[in-house]
């Protein structure tokens, strides 16, 4: 998709892909036939620049035709660089400016708490995004409210645009910070579907506090020249790189 469009964020798409697949095909209560059903689970893609992975998950889940993925980032396409709920079913809120997704998800979870609704709210954040003060204001309020219906997943690939998170503005000890704000915390391999499923499928009614799942991931997962490379935060593979990426990913699927 990024190769065809000539732009995109493939490094972050690949670090988040297993998380999104687990949510959409193993965890969330959703129905593309009734995307606005009041009882649906809600998902907020806070790292809204990684639309390649999000749109792929939405299409495979049946929210729009898979063939439409070929229009990614093209003029007039519904699949623009940041998700827009006015364009696509299944998109709960517009995201892209970092630091906004968790506050919105907290608001949705508070509404569910007030209404005694049984839906669950999931939000996927980048780790560099956690350098935004708005994220910690939202985290503090979620802990205060005891939002057991809220799960935040951190795509902890350790890289942001241009450098590592720890060289830019260190986040560790990250788990302790979430716990200090009143959250339950689990740390998992973000590319292990069984581990993700075990963490994300915990029924919300069993919790009195919000849950943060720190998913340890690899930027550019599965593509050797992208893995752990800050330069692939955004970028476009050449024809040769695209062929190599497909070959490596196919080999991994066959392993």
Terminus-to-terminus distance = 24 Å
The CATH topology label is: Rossmann fold
Report the top-level CATH class: Alpha Beta
Proportion in β-strands: 5-15%
State the helicity in percent bands: 25-40%
CATH superfamily: Thiamin diphosphate (ThDP)-binding fold, Pyr/PP domains
Number of helices: 9
Contiguous low-pLDDT stretches (5 residues minimum) are: none
What is the multimeric organization of the chains shown?
A: single chain
Class derived from helix and strand content: alpha/beta
Major sheet: order of its strands?
A: 1-2-3-7-6
Query: Domains counted in the coordinates: how many?
Result: 1
> Could you spell the SSE succession in H and E letters?
HHEHHEHEEEHHEHEH
Number of strands: 7
- Rg over CA atoms, rounded to whole Å, is 17 Å
Features:
255 residues; alpha/beta; 5-stranded parallel β-sheet; two-stranded antiparallel ribbon; 38% helix
Structure description:
38% of the residues lie in helices and 13% in strands. It has one domain: Rossmann fold (3-Layer(aba) Sandwich), CATH 3.40.50. A 5-stranded parallel beta sheet has the order 1-2-3-7-6, with helices on both faces. The mean pLDDT is 96. It is α/β, with parallel strands linked by helices. Helix 2 (10-27) packs parallel to helix 3 (51-61). The chain is built from 9 helices and 7 strands; from the N terminus they run H-H-E-H-H-E-H-E-E-E-H-H-E-H-E-H.
Short description:
With 255 residues, the protein is an alpha/beta fold.
Topology of helices and strands:
Elements lengths: L1 H4 L4 H18 L14 E4 L5 H11 L39 H15 L5 E6 L6 H13 L4 E7 L2 E2 L2 E2 H5 L4 H7 L3 E6 L3 H8 L10 E6 L22 H16 L1
Parallel strand pairs: 1-2, 2-3, 3-7, 6-7
Antiparallel strand pairs: 4-5
């Amino acid at each position: 998709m990024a190769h065809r469009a000539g732009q995109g964020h493939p490094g972050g798409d690949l670090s988040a892909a297993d998380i999104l697949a687990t949510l959409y095909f193993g965890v969330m209560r959703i129905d593309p036939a009734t995307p606005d059903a009041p009882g649906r689970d809600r998902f907020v893609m806070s790292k809204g620049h990684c639309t390649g992975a999000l749109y792929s998950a939405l299409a495979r889940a049946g929210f729009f035709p898979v063939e439409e993925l070929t229009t990614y980032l093209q003029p007039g396409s519904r699949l623009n660089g940041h998700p827009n709920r006015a364009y696509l079913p299944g998109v709960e809120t517009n995201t892209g400016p970092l630091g906004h997704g968790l506050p919105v998800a907290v608001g949705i979870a508070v509404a569910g708490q007030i209404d005694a609704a049984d839906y669950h709210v999931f939000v996927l954040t980048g780790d560099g995004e956690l350098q935004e003060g708005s994220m910690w204001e939202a985290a503090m309020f979620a802990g205060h409210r005891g939002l057991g219906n809220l799960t935040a997943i951190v795509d902890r690939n350790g890289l942001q645009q241009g450098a590592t998170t720890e060289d830019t503005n260190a986040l560790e000890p990250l788990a302790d910070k979430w716990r200090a704000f009143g959250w339950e915390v689990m740390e998992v391999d973000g590319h292990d579907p069984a581990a993700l499923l075990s963490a994300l499928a915990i029924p919300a009614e069993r919790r009195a506090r919000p849950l943060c799942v720190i998913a340890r991931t690899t930027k550019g997962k599965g593509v050797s020249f992208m893995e752990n490379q800050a330069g692939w935060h955004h970028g476009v593979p050449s024809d040769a790189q695209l062929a190599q990426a497909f070959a490596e990913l196919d080999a991994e699927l066959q392993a």
